[in-house]
Automatic annotation (TrEMBL):
CDD domains: Enpp. It comes from the Eukaryota. It comes from Rotaria magnacalcarata. Residues 1-18 form the signal peptide. Keywords: Signal. This is Uncharacterized protein. Transmembrane segments: none annotated. The lineage of its organism: Eukaryota, Metazoa, Spiralia, Gnathifera, Rotifera. GO terms for molecular function: hydrolase activity.
Length: 183
C-alpha cells in the first residue's frame, strides 16, 4: 500500500468514524483570475486561505468564458456540450424560448443535478446557496442574487448557516459579482 493510499484510507476512516459530513464552501468571485493575489498583492486574507486551505494553481475555463456556462460547469461537473448552456443568452428554436442572464429561468435550462442537489440527497446533507447565477434553487437554505447585497452581509449569512445550532449546512456556495462587475 502506498503512502498516499494510506493517508486517504486514514482520512476516509476518520470521516466514517466522525459521523458528521465534511464541510465544503465553494466561493466564486466572477472575473477573478487565479493569479490576482500575486499580481495585485499582497492580499492578506487570500494568502492565509492559500496557506491553511486549498487553492488552484490555475484554471482552464470552459470554451466560452461567460458567467453562466462556467458556473453551471462548476456545479454539475459537465462541459457545455453536455449541459447546453453556451452563453449568457440563448434562444431555443424548438421551444421558442429564450434564456437570459437577467430573466426568469425555468427548470428547462437546468436539467442536471448540481453538487448541492446531490448533497441534499445524502443523510445529514444540507446545502446553502447565496447569489449563485441560477434563480430556481431548491436547497435547505437559499438567497437569490441581489445586486445591493454587500459582501459582508453575504459572508455573515453563509457563516450563520454553517453555524446554525438546529440545522447547520455542510455545503455552501456563494457568488460574488466582483471584480467582473466593476471591471
Amino acid at each position: 500500500m502506498s503512502w498516499l493510499s494510506f493517508v486517504l484510507l486514514c482520512y476516509k476512516s476518520t470521516f466514517i468514524l466522525s459521523q458528521s459530513p465534511p464541510l465544503l464552501l465553494l466561493v466564486s468571485f466572477d472575473g477573478f483570475r487565479f493569479d490576482y493575489p500575486q499580481l495585485y498583492g499582497p492580499l492578506q486574507h487570500f494568502s492565509r486561505l492559500e496557506e491553511q486551505g486549498v487553492h488552484a494553481h490555475s484554471m482552464i475555463p470552459t470554451f466560452t468564458t461567460a458567467t453562466f456556462p462556467n458556473h453551471y460547469t462548476l456545479i454539475t461537473g459537465l462541459y457545455e456540450e453536455v449541459h447546453g448552456l453556451v452563453s449568457d443568452q440563448i434562444y431555443d428554436s424548438t421551444t421558442n424560448s429564450t434564456f437570459q442572464i437577467s430573466g426568469n429561468m425555468t427548470n428547462q435550462w437546468w436539467p442536471f443535478k448540481t453538487i448541492w442537489t446531490i448533497n441534499e440527497q445524502r443523510p445529514e446533507g444540507r446545502s446553502g446557496v447565496i447569489g449563485w447565477p441560477q434563480n430556481q434553487i431548491f436547497v435547505s437554505k437559499f438567497e437569490p442574487y441581489r445586486k445591493e447585497r454587500s459582501f459582508k452581509d453575504s459572508t455573515d449569512q453563509m457563516l450563520n448557516w454553517f453555524n446554525d445550532p438546529e440545522e447547520p449546512i455542510n455545503f455552501g456556495a456563494i457568488y460574488f459579482p466582483e471584480p467582473e462587475l466593476t471591471g
